[in-house]
Structures are given as C-alpha cells and as structure tokens.
C-alpha cells in the first residue's frame, strides 16, 4: 500500500528544513503563546512527528488519532486508531487540536464535518490549526496531482483559503492567522525571491474557539 510505504519513510521528528515547515513553525509560535497548553490532539497523526514537536515546544501531553496504525511504531504518545468524523474524546477537553495535510483528501461536504468534530473536542479559548497543501491556483497543484495522485495513487482535492475561512466563521472560531507558507521553487534550489499564493506550496489557518 502506497500510504503505508510513505509513512514508514517518515522521520520520528520533523527536520524543519523545508521553507514551509520553517514558516509554519514561526507562524504557530508567533500566534500561540507558551504557557497554559496542557494537552494537544493531532487528527490524522501518521507517525506523530509533528505531535512530538508540539509537545517539546509547549511542554504538553500529546494525543494522536489516525485510521491507520502503520505509523505507531514509537509508543511515546497516546495513539489511538479512530475515525476523524467521530473522535473518541469528550467535548471541550483539548487546548490545541490540529491536522496537517488531512482534509484535502476529503470531498467538500466532508471537510466541514471534520473541522466541526475537531472543534467539538477543543476547549473554549483553545486553538484549532489546519494546514494543507496550496492547491488553489498555484504551481503546487501541478506537482501534487502528478507526483502524488497520478504516480502514487493518492487523492487530493482543491481547497481555497476562502472556504476554510468560511468554515471557521461557521464554527464560531476567531481567525487568528490565515497565511500561505513555503516557496515552490525551493525544490529546484532557487532562492526565495517573493511569496504569493501562486508560488507558495502550503497554507495554514489558525482559529480560536470563543
């Protein structure tokens, strides 16, 4: 299975060498103050490498849910096999809930339901973080559709910034950050000259639950 093979190649901790990773980390650290974060949930956690980053950075306890246990080779987090549409947790218990590269694999009517379920388990004044590849009117779309969908059998759907902002507002989340990340031409060793939604390869939105 292509997905299992992809997961097994992942490192146990993000290397933070790609421009989008650096941009994302800086954005999260700049918008989320340290202190007061006791627990964090990653939905679609894969092998938990980003969950480990959160726990190290914010000195909190990590929980991860995925529908595939192939990445759970290192049992240092509270991993569960579960359904992202019906998370196995009570309401209002996590300080941070995040998903990286998850909801773009689902159709439009399903994406809102995923974010709604993540918001359900998020406590008031907590942070919802969603990161996706930038597939709307961008060079990244061509790269992802060819190298991942066509060649490896994955499936990515286009999500716009406008859609995610609308969903956050529908869920009564305050928009704390909405930003494009990374530099498409980095993979060709071309220095970053400017940034736009056309040349960015990722996007992040951070919402605060009121």
Describe the protein in words.
- The mean pLDDT is 95.
- The protein starts with a helix and ends with a strand.
- It has a seven-stranded mixed β-sheet with strand order 3-2-1-4-5-7-6, with helices on both faces.
- The protein contains six helices and seven strands, in the order H-H-E-H-E-E-E-H-E-H-H-E-E.
- It has 210 residues and is α/β, with parallel strands linked by helices.
- The protein has a single domain (2-10, 37-209), classed as Rossmann fold.
- The radius of gyration is 16 Å and the shape is globular.
- It has helices spanning 2-8, 19-31, 49-58, 108-120, 139-152, 161-170; strands at 39-43, 61-66, 78-81, 94-100, 122-133, 173-181, 202-209.
- 36% of the residues are buried.
Tell me the number of structural domains. 1
DSSP strand count = 7
Largest sheet: 7 strands, mixed
Q: What is the assigned CATH homologous superfamily?
A: Vaccinia Virus protein VP39
Fraction of residues in β-strands: 15-25%
Strand order of the largest sheet: 3-2-1-4-5-7-6
CATH fold-level label: Rossmann fold
CATH class: Alpha Beta
- Calculate Rg over CA atoms: 16 Å
Average the pLDDT over all residues and give the rounded result: 95
Distance between the termini: 41 Å
Model regions low in confidence, pLDDT < 50 over at least 5 residues? none
Shape: globular
Give the proportion of residues in helices.
25-40%
């Amino acid at each position: 299975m292509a997905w299992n093979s992809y997961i097994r190649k992942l490192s146990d901790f993000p290397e933070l060498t790609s421009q989008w990773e650096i941009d994302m980390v800086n954005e999260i650290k700049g918008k989320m103050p340290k202190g007061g974060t006791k627990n964090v949930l990653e939905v679609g956690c894969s092998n938990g490498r980003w969950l480990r980053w959160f726990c190290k950075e914010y000195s909190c306890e990590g929980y991860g849910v995925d529908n595939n246990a192939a990445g759970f080779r290192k049992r240092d987090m509270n991993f569960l096999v579960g359904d992202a549409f019906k998370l196995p947790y009570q309401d209002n218990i996590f300080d941070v809930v995040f998903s990286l590269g998850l909801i773009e694999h689902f159709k439009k009517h399903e994406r809102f339901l995923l974010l709604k379920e993540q918001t359900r388990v998020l406590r008031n004044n907590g942070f919802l973080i969603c990161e996706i590849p930038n597939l709307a009117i961008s060079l990244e779309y061509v790269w992802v559709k060819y190298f991942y969908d066509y060649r490896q059998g994955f499936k990515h759907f286009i999500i716009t910034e406008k859609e995610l902002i609308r969903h956050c507002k529908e869920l009564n989340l305050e928009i704390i950050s909405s930003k494009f990340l990374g530099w498409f031409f980095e993979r060709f060793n071309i220095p970053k000259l400017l940034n736009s939604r056309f040349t960015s390869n990722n996007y992040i939105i951070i919402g605060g639950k009121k």
